[in-house]
TrEMBL record, chains A, B:
Top-rank lineage group of the source organism: Bacteria
Record-level GO BP terms: riboflavin biosynthetic process
Binding site for substrate: 184, 200, 220, 223, 283
GO molecular function terms noted in the UniProt entry: 5-amino-6-(5-phosphoribosylamino)uracil reductase activity; diaminohydroxyphosphoribosylaminopyrimidine deaminase activity; zinc ion binding
Keywords linked to the UniProt accession: Hydrolase, Metal-binding, Multifunctional enzyme, NADP, Oxidoreductase, Riboflavin biosynthesis, Zinc
This protein's name: Riboflavin biosynthesis protein RibD
Lineage, opening ranks: Bacteria, Bacillati, Actinomycetota, Actinomycetes, Mycobacteriales
CMP/dCMP-type deaminase domain span: 1-127
Length: 351, 351
């Protein structure tokens, strides 16, 4: 147990609850026996007010009839040192007799910090953090081509004091989102649509502009393969000053929709933060995407790319200001993964 | 031995001589002993007038002290049945006592066709073709995400009666090749440059426009890591009616340069075909790229992609005509591979 790979199961546990834990982080924890070879318990953050991942994993081990004495814990976030609605996780690990803890990221939350020190003071062999916090020095090269970790949006939100923002784009390789006559259904692969719905269900909120609602009247729910909406839905946010029809599909159940009458990106994000929103997916048109890029607020990009040329039409990003007049102004992102969706390509980038 | 994987070593042998065999195809051949487990000989096409891959592989086996009786041959192209400057390969395989032949593509060359039938008539167990010819029905789905095979340019050239054309593009994910002030050195990674030079050395010719020569004055030689030009250089072709300075670097040794005073894509390609050119790489600016796409002549795309946004500047493709006014006019390509070059991405597509 000495590299990033060991966090993959804990990260998958965290991902499984992403979208249901805010304002808490979707953490995953795996407990091993004293040899470090056999898994004895697994846990992920419960919805706010419920137990944290470490406590869930300890309970799981005991429920399995396992002893946690001399066990090892692998967890995606530094165990908290904070008594909030639940007791501190670091103390729970000490009480359970755990002797080694590996954690992926430090906890940047000022009220929860100090968990690793507390564990060390109690003689526990603590290893971590394995990665620097996002938006710290050297972050880019550290993260290049690594998979996305489920606690990242929460980390960014905590560090930047605003929700984590992922921009979703879909375009041709020459950068067009629709042809001149506005025909645009070019990502036809069933696989791509399924990935979008899977993505939505793990977000706290989705943002679109009033223009998209008026033009396409989308439902924007997260639906399974058979079209059935998932029990848990992200908040659907419409941003912009124009009114939209009250019978727009975006207001349909299940889930809630919210019209924030502002076209100011920072204002909208501040409003969402006050509602406990940590992780948002922006599924806007080219102007909304441009507004976020212009504001310098894009923590991640999900680019669904058709290996095709249109040569003319509507561009994937529209921006009033001549944002990047020289190469020094380029907004460069870090590639995290490339995957294939039928005949299309999904490129995941982060700040 | 029953799938595409078995061709990978033969294909690599063919690739190693690509750029030196035209007008003949860069074929690779691997000979196995009768068990099909042990390699006894390897061969690739010699320069025009020299031996074909099968004959080279048989010679290699005999040179290694191996017997070719009851041996098996794996070859990337159907063995020819044609007595040209060399005898027919199918007869050479029969004479060597080979009992099984697996070939990847049929030979579409009317004068060479019939090799597989000739082998079968002599009782040889023949398997192939494993892939359809490019530009035939069902080709796209057959080739999706397969690696590029070294005989493909020759196959396309033979079927389409013009050189195979690869367009090289380098741009941001919003489709820009340079910022508004024309600063454009955004692909800075050493890895990307190395791949471009490796690519050039395996082509018969490189095409640029007069505008690129006047603006950038490039050398366009294929150079190794230390900057030394490779012994074998592609023909450097400048297309366009404007004159260029006689002391332009593109005329510098080593290798040859040729100015074809035409901006007509088909005319230029016909001229090159008459000179025995099979495989060209178009390294033009956005207008030249647009001219090839507008003419519908683009067999492959090498897209070097920076995970970055410029939001404004010079587009990667410029085209006078409103080529794709509706989605039905989209020029869609088949993804063949995605690779990473430092922090950039190389997307290889084919027709």
């Amino acid at each position: 147990m000495a590299d990033l790979l060991m966090f993959s199961e804990a990260n998958a546990l965290g991902h499984s609850v992403a979208g249901s834990t805010s304002p808490n982080p979707p953490v995953g924890c795996v407990l091993y026996d004293s040899t470090g070879q056999r898994v004895i318990g697994r846990g992920a953050t419960e919805p706010a007010g419920g137990a944290h991942a470490e406590v869930v994993a300890i309970r799981d081990a005991l429920h399995n009839g396992e002893s946690t004495v001399d066990a090892r814990a692998v967890v995606t976030l530094e165990p908290c040192n904070h008594t909030g609605r639940t007791g501190p996780c670091s103390q729970a690990l000490i009480d359970a007799g755990i002797t080694r803890v590996d954690f992926l990221f430090s906890d940047p939350n000022p009220v929860a910090v100090g968990g690793a020190d507390h564990l060390r003071e109690h003689g526990i062999d603590v290893h971590g953090p394995y990665l620097p916090l996002p938006y710290c020095d050297e972050t880019r090269s550290s993260f290049q081509w690594l998979p996305q970790f489920s606690v990242e949006p929460w980390l960014v939100s905590t560090v930047m004091k605003r929700p984590h923002v992922t921009l979703k784009l879909a375009s041709t390789i020459d950068g067009f989102v629709a042809a001149s006559d506005n025909t645009s259904k070019w990502i036809t692969s069933e696989q791509a649509r399924r990935v979008v719905h899977e993505d939505r269900r793990h977000r706290d909120a989705i943002i679109v502009g009033t223009g998209t609602v008026k033009a396409d009247n989308p439902r924007l729910t997260a639906r399974g393969e058979d079209g059935t909406p998932y029990p848990q839905q992200p908040l659907r946010v419409i941003m912009g000053q124009r009114s939209i029809p009250e019978d727009s599909h975006i207001y349909d159940a299940p889930g809630r929709a919210l019209h924030i009458r502002s076209h100011d990106v920072k204002e909208v994000l501040a409003d969402l933060r006050s509602r406990g929103i940590v992780d948002v997916l922006v599924e806007g048109g080219p102007r909304l995407t441009g507004a976020f890029l212009k504001a310098g607020i894009a923590d991640a990009i999900q680019l669904y790319q058709a290996p095709a040329f249109l040569l003319a039409g509507y561009r994937n990003v529209e921006c009033d200001a001549n944002l990047a007049s020289t190469l020094d102004d380029i907004q460069r992102f870090t590639p995290r993964s490339v995957s294939t969706l039928g005949s299309d390509i999904l490129l995941s980038l982060s700040h």
